[in-house]
Amino acid sequence: MISGKTKVVGLIGDPVKHSVSPSMQNAAFRKLGLDYVYVPFNVEKDSLQSALSGLKALKVRGVNVTIPHKSSVMDHLDEIEEPAKKIGAVNTIKREGQLLKGFNTDGIGAQSALKEKIDELKDKNIVILGAGGAARAISFTLAEKGANLTISNRTTSKAEELVREIKKKVGGKVKEIPQDRKRLKEELEDSNILINSTSVGMHPDKDETILTAKEMHSDLTVMDIVYNPPKTHLLKEAEKAGAKTISGLGMLVHQGATSFKIWTGRKAPVQTMKKSAKKVLEGK
Ligand SMILES: NC(=O)c1ccc[n+]([C@@H]2O[C@H](COP(=O)([O-])OP(=O)(O)OC[C@H]3O[C@@H](n4cnc5c(N)ncnc54)[C@H](OP(=O)(O)O)[C@@H]3O)[C@@H](O)[C@H]2O)c1
């Protein structure tokens, strides 16, 4: 029950009404018996600064940050953790007194989802589709882990820029290839992991996929970060090719679990969060 002692966390973004996070985070608080509540706040672009002042005034413990504020919010924070600085985006804020600290849990969320099926990421050959916000978080995190990355984006210049930044800030083996089925098939022959971090295949365009079974093989692990629907067209094609699959629910839950730990200091009940997220998505 909410009382005068209840700690408030939440989400700022625009829109927020379809977010799975309120259900997932509140289920986790209930499971551990923590006196917290997670509330979505619809914050328009022009209101970001005043919303952040409001977090301090209202003593909100912390928030997740989503579209369109993930980059612009960085100009208004007092401290930003190193991975978020490199990635250039913040998806979690923790208030400590009058200070707002920024974190990025997307990359670590993807890494934890991969680790459920793969022991070691170092020296793995990984093909990443996309060069948007999520792809940036995932690429920087996996580069830090010593994976060899090949990035392929519809807009080539964005992938080239991401490769340049990773080389400069992290180093390691990272290259760009065009988003062309034939070229991707060749690259995948020597790869261990494929990650779709584009929005292709997301509801309502559920029949879309960048690759089909013909381009994949049974030694691949394929992760799609699109979580609505949980089993995307790409994952169905990956199954046809005999590949192992990881759905976007994994990253969704693990990025949320990392935010939960940042706010509460407690290890999140990941299975409870997964069950709750699944239930919401199945109802959509
Ligand atoms: N599971 C999770 O926890 C999680 C977390 C974050 C995001 N996501 C999901 O990840 C997806 C991407 O999010 P984001 O924040 O990175 O978005 P974003 O910054 O807008 O980037 C979108 C990416 O998708 C590509 N793309 C869009 N339409 C395409 C098409 N028709 N063909 C080929 N590529 C296309 C874009 O390529 P161009 O650069 O060429 O436009 C870009 O690389 C969304 O579906 C989001 O819901 C999931």
Automatic annotation (TrEMBL):
Top-level taxon of origin: Archaea
Enzyme class, spelled out: oxidoreductase
Reaction equation(s) it catalyzes: shikimate + NADP(+) = 3-dehydroshikimate + NADPH + H(+)
EC number of this enzyme: 1.1.1.25
Binding site for NADP(+): E82, G130, A131, G132, G133, A134, N153, R154, T155, T156, S157, K158, I225, G248
Matching CDD domains: NAD_bind_Shikimate_DH
Keywords: Amino-acid biosynthesis, Aromatic amino acid biosynthesis, NADP, Oxidoreductase
Active site residues per record: K70 (proton acceptor)
Domain Shikimate dehydrogenase substrate binding N-terminal: 11-93
HAMAP family documented for this protein: Shikimate_DH_AroE (MF_00222)
Similarity comment: family membership: Belongs to the shikimate dehydrogenase family.
Subunit structure: Homodimer.
Protein name listed in UniProt: Shikimate dehydrogenase (NADP(+))
Gene name per UniProt: aroE
